[in-house]
Amino acid sequence: MTGLIAFREIVLKVHSRCDLACDHCYVYEHADQSWRAQPKVISPEVISRTASRLAEHARDHALPSVTVILHGGEPLLAGPDRLRLVCEELTRALAGTAALDLRIHTNGLQLGRRCLDLFAEYGVRVGISLDGDRAANDRHRRFADGRSSHPLVLAAVALLRSEPYRHLYQGLLCTVDVANDPVAVLDALVELEPPRVDFLLPHATWQTPPPRPGGAPDAYARWLLRVFDRWEQLGRPVPVRLFESLLSTLRGGPSLTESLGLAPTDLVVVETDGTLEQVDSLKSAFEGAAATGFNVFDHSFDLVAAHPGVRARQLGLEGVSGTCRRCPVVRSCGGGLYTHRYREDGPAGAGFDNPSVYCSDLRELVDGVEGRTAARETAAELADPAELARSQEELTRALLARLHGELAADPQWAGAWELLTGVEGADPDALDTVLGHPFTRTWVLEALDAVREGRPDAAGCARRLAALAAAAVLRGGLEPGAEVVYRDGEVYLPTLGLLRLGEPGTEGRAALHATGDGYAVVRAGRTEHRFGPAAGDARWLPVRTWRPGPQQPPVALEDLDPYRNCFARPPRLRLGAGEADAWRRRLDAAWALLHRTVPEFARAAAAGLSTVTPLAGGPRAQGWGEAGRHGPGALGVPYAAGVRETALALLTGRRRARLRALTEVADLYALDGAWQHPSPWRTRPVPVSRLLADVHERVAVEAYRRATTTQEPGGADRIHRALDRLAEAPELTVTGKRLVEELRWELKAVDA
Fold it and tell me: How far is Cα 214 from Cα 217, in angstroms, rounded to an integer?
């Protein structure tokens, strides 16, 4: 059945009764009382059939692994023999099909060595419910006669933490009660050294809302934020899934828990009689809320996956209410747990199309965690150009390593790679220079595209790699030189120039060596000719340079590299000497204009600029520069543009290049395209990536236009409107929000 989610997690109810009488239990104390009709213990027939259905489902969906959580009631009441049968049947059925991750969730009262020996045999990890210190735990987790369960649970945890069982310890689950001391609760849990702690909000709906002492709408947020502050103060001694999920989504990553985020659920419940149900927290909503009408004897898991109630929880953003879709924190909170949205009399009628009953708490919790951590969670690349350059260098190396993984078996590639690694050991700075050449990234990306499309040109890739290595050898003056393969009579040495080694149409090999005054070509043991900085060889076309200012490093005027065709318009052919001089003069004048009119933006544009490529034709209507598919530092500028247009091209092109470099190494947004935003400059709504790119450019353009008395009427107002829209965009991560703040400050400086 196509289009259906595969269930990767099965909750198997092995016992339907409990030895505690917790007054906050959703199974026994809430709306759905179907437990009364369930068999107390799962039967061998249900176990066997469940195992078969699960193996069938894993095969049909090619699942590498499945998780089975033994649950209840209290699962340990099923006894070691029945639990052994569960482990045996599941292990047998899934052998050779999918890895089995077995877990059990228990209150721990029946946890003894016999059970733990069984769990050690089958690798069953154990999670224990504990609400904190004794005062907190005994508020709800008591025996029916009112006795405390706390000492027995601590004894169970102590046994679980001991050898040889420590590796089975999965963690502790704590249900929040705002009447408890949050610091004491966390300290008590941390003292038990759990591998993980889960905090759960008590199950509630709009019909049966959670207790709120004093009516505070944010009582649970304030309680959890006090836990967060204590967790931070202690140095985050144990993972807390709730907090780590929030931090992940704020950075643009996935949710780590069902109760938060927009990820679809992939869980199904098997009751002790073999009935198949949705997630059992739905029992808090109304009688039969979790029911599907299916069972393991007559129905496959795929039929459950097609159930409307299950499908409703696979819709991500489309599955939350309209109010939630408009909320800036919806990526993190995900509208809250599905159960907590239920309302009998909501605006859309009875159902789950509502915000969570914990909506105010979730908003304050997300904002509170973000406010406390944004400064250190923001990607360092945003504030530090040197860090951005390092990350970009690492990205190029990572892409090159991936290409090596695809082509390592080719002898020509292997030889060139060996030379490259030798250069890295001898002169890493020389290698960094050629790998930092922006069009090295273009070549690697095009080669990886070819690999993905099944057309890898291993020989062509080896030629370029050998040329990279040779350029590094020559730059570093390394011995014993490097061999290159030329084609059509020439070879391009990145960052250095183009060397003609034969007639057009010829191919061959040549050895290149560094000399005291330049470089030399050696063939058959004899030096054929010299080329380079101090030689006047007509067969050598060096890369020309331009210096933006006396304190700036030289910038390559790159009109030779065959991979410079990565811009939206074609590059110019090799400029004549007079053309190159004229272009330098225009660049000088344009750069002086920028420094005179928008000095702060000019300095930012100069940072990291290493290569300017002349493009064919004159300026387009806006005269803006182009950032193509290349590494950092490159910019395409229309050759025939005038001084003002060239200045604008330098400014906007560098802004585009900087934003692109940021998006390649840092998450500025997530779920791009899930929302469409009105843009002051476009007739149709746009995704957040486009709106952010427009604003990022327009701030600099507005500054330039004001300084050159060509400002656009209403330009600043449009930018302010776009910034306001971005500030409320759910897609933005903490780094993206920090960038929006930076743009707002830039615009304030322009306004001032």
Answer: 9
